[in-house]
């Protein structure tokens, strides 16, 4: 196993994808296929997550409390985000479900994606293939949109996103 040099953004994507599977049995090749990430990157990511205490040593059980702590208290410092220029893409943060049902805003945030159906301020996804993966998995889309609200949201968006994440992860 390689030396642990800290978490990478796609580690969060992989952990949230495992959560989106629910109680399904999954294989690393499923993660690779669904997230458009190579199997070697999946393997290295899971090893980093084991060392960080975010997944069990058998790499099958997410340490939900630890993951929530990291998302709530560390994510915005480790992987911060500020909105960029207007682009075409897929809605995220408060512009996407579930927050779009709770928060009304004229500002639209999107992950840049040429096949997206919305126009808004760009938010850099945690991995370049997040938009493509989220088209196939609405549950993952919701989880990553909530994570983006934590990464860049104001206090109200942050608090609502945290409560929504707790419901989905616990």
What would you note in describing this structure?
This is MarR family transcriptional regulator. It comes from Flavobacterium pectinovorum. The protein is mostly helical. It is built from eight helices and three strands; from the N terminus they run αααααβββααα. The chain has two domains: 9-78; 86-169, no CATH class. Strands 1, 2 and 3 form a three-stranded mixed β-sheet that branches.
Quick take:
The chain has 170 residues and is mostly helical. Helices cover 50% and strands 9% of the residues.
In terms of topology, how is this protein built?
Layout: H1 9-20, H2 28-35, H3 39-52, H4 64-73, H5 75-78, E1 86-91, E2 109-112, E3 118-122, H6 130-136, H7 138-152, H8 155-169
Parallel strand pairs: 2-3
Antiparallel strand pairs: 1-2, 1-3
Helix pairs in contact: 1-3, 1-7, 2-3, 6-7, 7-8
Protein name: MarR family transcriptional regulator
Organism: Flavobacterium pectinovorum
């Amino acid at each position: 196993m390689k030396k642990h040099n800290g978490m990478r953004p796609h580690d969060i994507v992989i952990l949230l994808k495992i959560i989106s599977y629910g109680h399904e049995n999954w294989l690393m090749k499923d993660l690779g296929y669904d997230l458009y990430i190579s199997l070697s990157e999946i393997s290295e990511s899971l090893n980093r997550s084991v060392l960080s205490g975010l997944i069990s040593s058998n790499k099958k059980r997410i340490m939900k409390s630890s993951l929530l702590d990291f998302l709530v208290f560390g994510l915005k410092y480790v992987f911060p985000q500020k909105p960029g220029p207007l682009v075409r893409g897929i809605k995220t943060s408060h512009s996407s479900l579930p927050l779009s049902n709770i928060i009304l805003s004229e500002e639209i945030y999107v992950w840049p994606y040429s096949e997206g159906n919305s126009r808004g301020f760009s938010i850099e996804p945690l991995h370049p293939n997040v938009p493509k993966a989220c088209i196939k998995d609405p549950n993952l889309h919701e989880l990553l949109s909530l994570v983006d609200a934590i990464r860049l949201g104001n206090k109200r968006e942050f608090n609502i996103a945290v409560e929504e994440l707790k419901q989905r992860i616990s």
